[in-house]
Amino acid sequence: MDWRQYIHSDPKILLGKPTVKGTRLSVEFLLGLFAAGWTEQQVLENYPTLTSEALRAVFAFTAECMREESLYTLPLLSEAG
After folding, report:
1. pLDDT by residue (tens digit) across 39-52?
2. 43 contacts 32 by C-beta, under 8 angstroms
């Protein structure tokens, strides 16, 4: 998937955060909904301007960003105590 068809950054919209084109919905916000337990159906029902393809683009964009970033080892939950 070419996420560039769906995701862009404009300094005039949300201070340049990556957003879904044609919306003010940031990638960060949408990922937060999924992290909070929302389903794709719930997101699409609550934000009718979004499409399934746009949501896949959010994940494709995030995956590409993660591949290009340095990852840090996180302590195991039992060690963080």
Report:
1. 999 999 999 999 99
2. no
Calpha distance 43→29 (Å, rounded): 11
Q: Of all helices (H) and strands (E), which one includes residue 53?
A: helix 52-68
Tokens 């916000």 found at: 29
- Evaluate whether 19 touches 13 at the Cβ level (below 8 Å): yes
pTM over 0.70: yes
3-state secondary structure of 26: strand
* Burial label, 24 (beta-carbon count in 10 A; 0-12, 13-18, 19+): exposed
